[in-house]
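ARCHIVE ENTRY
Sequence with per-residue tokens
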Amino acid sequence: MDAYVKLASDSLEYYLEHQKYMKVPEGLPLEMLNKRAGVFVSLKKDGQLRGCIGTIESVRDSIAEEIIRNAVSAGIGDPRFFQVSKNEFSNLDISVDVLGESFPVTDISILDAKRYGVIVSLGGRKGLLLPNLEGVETPEEQIDIALDKAGISEIEDYELAAFEVVRHY
């Protein structure tokens, strides 16, 4: 199993068992310990989204710490879903997206919904949509979904940024 996915899985399982966050384990790849990045953890059950929580920019000291916190939040803190139970844990498929640096976009023709995720922002409101999501085929669809998530109208003067991810399954 990929080290990123294993850490996400282990951390959610640990939390469900002990009701506390696990410590960063030894033996992880150095990149996970020495680098910082935004991270999203997605949970699926029977092919359907079961939870997805992440950070646009790093808020912890390492990618590993970001994964631990976001995996637990995806399992117990996504307001769209009930908390994951211990019984259903073994039926989850987990993926981890490590976000690259975002860059401003002034022309959406440069975007590709399979390659780039999008971030929309206006004032303190932000919405993000990851790239390469099933059922989302165009940048326009991505932007519409991100605007809806942020509570921003398409006629407002919002800022648009894009980013690439490294997705771990």
User: Anything to note?
Assistant: The first strand starts at residue 39 and ends at 45. The chain has a mean pLDDT of 97. Residues 103-164 form a domain with the Dna Ligase; domain 1 fold (CATH 3.30.1490.150). The CA atoms of residues 107 and 160 lie 9 Å apart.
